[in-house]
Specification:
about 50% helix, single chain, about 325 residues, alpha/beta, Rossmann fold
């Protein structure tokens, strides 16, 4: 935390001096009482002395002063605020290898659930679209703010053969650029979140797609999903389908995005939450004086309430 007017914090010296003065006065008062008061008689006429309670209003008052001084110095803090306008394309691998059960119930089922939650946590004003890819890529839901439509698109995904990662990125870029006239003239901040468990086996290679994404200024966040032990049945045979992460990592690095690995449904959800925090919000330094002033007023209210409750007077 920083302060726009740090010189004003010197007023805390006055607050500290007030605290020291209060302590000295209390000691002087105690010495005077011990010198001139008959303790046995005092115990009889005032058996229930306030004790520590008499210091509570003063302590709350000093806290109030400290908070108000800090607020007067105009503190600032980094605050996460939603982006006003952005587009996110979620590209989901629907190749047959997503039937592997190394992530229960299957990679595909867990991926659908995580994608639904991810979409739900993005700011409402975001345009979100869905791209599905197996041997080809297609836009299932064009960018829209209609979350029900996006969730319906995720629910309706079907599996198919092969994996076209490069085509998925290029299709997502075309969808981002062409979904409205405003985007073509003044492109909003955009991200592609691509989840896959295998290597590219169809269409244009990821390297070409990475060049186009970098030229368009659209980072690609890639998620390698599954484990090295993944298997599927194909033609009566068990076929290993281990995750191929290096190609996805190169794709993310080339576009300025980030690469993630997830070997379980819980890890995948954590990845989506991390992506959502960076895609869905921006960090700004804002003045937060109101926080200190608000807590200072609460401290003042506490001082007044304690003094009225215990001593029937204001401090």
């Amino acid at each position: 935390m920083t302060f726009l007017e740090p010189d004003r914090l010197f007023l805390l010296i006055a607050v500290a001096a007030t605290a020291v003065g209060y302590v000295l006065l209390q000691r002087r008062r105690r010495q005077y009482a011990l010198r001139f008061t008959e303790l046995a008689l005092l115990d009889k006429v005032a058996p229930d002395r306030p004790g520590f309670r008499r210091h509570v209003p003063a302590a709350a008052f000093l806290v109030m002063l400290g908070l108000l001084v800090a607020g007067f110095a105009r503190p600032t803090a980094e605050v996460k605020v939603p982006r006003e306008r952005a587009t996110v394309l979620v590209a989901i691998d629907v190749s047959a290898s997503m039937e592997a059960t190394d992530v229960p119930p299957t990679r595909f089922d867990a991926a659908q659930e995580a994608a639904r939650r991810f979409v739900g946590q993005l700011p409402e004003q975001f345009n979100v679209g869905i791209v599905a890819f197996d041997g080809r890529a297609r836009v299932v839901v064009p960018p829209t703010t209609d979350r029900a439509l996006v969730r319906s698109g995720i629910d309706g995904l079907d599996l198919g053969p092969a994996t076209a990662i490069g085509e998925a990125v290029i299709t997502a870029l075309e969808s981002i650029a062409g979904f409205d006239a405003e985007a073509a003239a003044e492109p909003p901040p955009a991200r592609i979140v691509l989840l896959s468990d295998g290597e590219n086996t169809a269409g244009r290679p990821p390297e070409i797609a990475a060049e186009e994404a970098a030229a368009a200024g659209v980072p690609v966040y890639t998620i390698a999903y599954g484990t090295s032990d993944g298997q599927v049945l194909s033609g009566g045979y068990v076929v290993p389908v281990p995750v191929d992460g290096p190609a996805l990592e190169r794709l993310a690095d080339a576009t300025g995005g980030r690469f993630y690995e997830a070997a379980s449904g819980e890890e995948l959800q954590a990845v989506y939450e991390d992506i959502g925090s960076s895609v869905g919000f921006r960090t700004e330094r804002q003045e937060v004086s109101v926080w200190f002033i608000g807590f200072g007023l609460l401290a003042a209210l506490g001082a007044a309430s304690a003094s009225l409750l215990w001593f029937s007077r204001l401090p």
